[in-house]
Design brief:
Helix content: 25-40%
Order of helices and strands: HEHHEHEEHEHEHHEHEEH
Number of domains: 1
Number of strands: 9
Radius of gyration: 20 Å
Structural class: alpha/beta
Strand order of the largest sheet: 2-4-5-6-7-8-9
């Protein structure tokens, strides 16, 4: 009955594709079009000095920050703000439990020390490139003082075994030499973005587990903040139940691996944002992914616009529903939330937005560990310029909004 089997497999693939298209219409991803072809940077120079230069390891790849935020919706389920992308790439792989070696033992119960260092500003970024190339532009002083001087996250979006440990080490050594705390974003989970515009990542979960082990070797003994796989939990409804369970098990292993390798690293899991899932639903998914036992808390609002007060209240509700140790906290992306979220359906470089609170680990708010710029202001969602590329017009509008 070969014909019957072929028809059954075809029908199964069509159902899977329909389910993914439905999920993408219901909840648009917070991150889109992060290219793995960005140029190499040298983390060995900080303000013209060589004190931050690492050993003979490859320089890290400074990835463009995430492009497209999840659109705001009046209800917890987000609206369909953008058309569904084309069918997922044929290279999409089924998420399988890893056959990797037994994970390392959990870190001792003592948590990583509280975040006290100032945050790290990498010496190379698109906004710094623009500032250096445009000394006479009248907008330069505003963009430089309000955006370019601020610390921001460094993304690692390429699945590049054999290279990733050296790239992470270059950043962490540079930060340690400067006495600062880097914000690192591993972003290579298989089936990333549910086959949308940011699709990519490792070919399967076994390969991802191995990549994370290499990533962890680059952490070193210094303080670090790890934003573990934006959207990997909040945007997982497109997966089948077995695929989702396998992904969550891999994230739990990743958290355990990172915290074991980096005694001062604080690992935060994907908490979505206040305009997406209910706190109870997000907490249940976080619990399944091991956030309460293998992490230091959650992150929210990555590449989005929701006000800090709304995110603070939402994060506390998620943490309360999650349970776990009282030490668990939250970090919030405040890079573009100064004027709050735009109207429902407006997600692509929306007008009238503004910079939010500057990055700091001293929030003065219970259970809120830091305000971070995970998305660098001025990097486009795809309307003012190519996704992820820096535009001075957009940056200036945010800086003066």
């Amino acid at each position: 009955m070969p014909g019957t089997r072929v028809r059954r497999r075809t029908a199964h693939r069509e159902r899977r594709r329909a389910a993914r298209r439905h999920a993408l219409l219901a909840v648009a991803s917070a991150v889109v079009a992060i290219g793995a072809s960005a140029g190499l940077i040298d983390a060995g120079h900080q303000d013209g000095r060589d004190t931050a230069r690492p050993g003979p390891t490859p320089p890290p790849v400074l990835q463009p920050l995430p492009a497209v935020p999840t659109p705001t919706a009046p209800a917890p389920s987000a609206s369909s703000a953008r058309p569904a992308p084309a069918a997922p790439s044929p290279s999409r792989t089924t998420a399988r439990p890893s056959a990797a070696p037994t994970p390392p033992p959990a870190r001792p119960t003592a948590p990583a020390p509280a975040l006290r260092n100032r945050l790290f500003r990498h010496p190379h970024s698109q906004v710094l490139d623009w500032v250096r190339a445009n000394p006479d532009d009248p907008r330069r002083p505003v963009i430089e003082s309000r955006i370019a001087t601020q610390p921001a996250a460094v993304w690692f979006a390429a699945h590049n075994p054999g290279e990733i440990a050296g790239q992470v080490r270059a950043v962490t050594r540079g930060a340690a030499a400067a006495g600062r705390t880097p914000v690192l974003v591993p972003y290579a989970i298989p089936d990333r973005d549910c086959g949308g515009a940011s699709q990519g990542g490792a070919p399967d979960l076994a390969a991802y587990d191995a990549w994370i082990r290499e990533f962890a070797r680059g952490l070193g003994a210094g303080a670090a903040i790890v934003i573990l796989e934006p959207d990997a939990i909040a945007l997982s409804d497109c997966l089948t139940a077995p695929e989702r369970a396998a992904r969550f098990a891999s994230l739990a292993r990743a958290g355990r691996t990172l915290r074991t390798a980096g005694p001062r690293a604080r690992v935060y899991f994907d908490g979505g944002h206040s305009g997406w899932h209910t706190p109870a639903k997000q907490a249940a998914a976080l619990r399944a992914a091991g956030a309460a036992t293998n992490g230091d808390g959650i992150f929210t609002n990555v590449a989005n616009f929701h006000r800090t007060a709304d995110e603070t209240a939402y994060a506390r509700r998620v943490l309360a529903a999650l349970g776990g140790p009282a030490r668990l906290g939250a970090v919030i992306d405040t890079s573009r939330n100064g004027n709050g979220a735009p109207a429902a359906g407006e997600w692509c470089d929306p007008a009238g937005r503004a910079l939010g609170r500057t990055p700091t680990t001293r929030t003065g708010e219970a259970r809120i560990d830091a305000y971070l710029w995970v998305k660098l202001p001025g990097e486009s969602d795809g309307c003012s310029a190519a996704p992820g590329s820096f535009t001075s017009e957009y940056a200036y509008s945010l800086a003066t909004g």
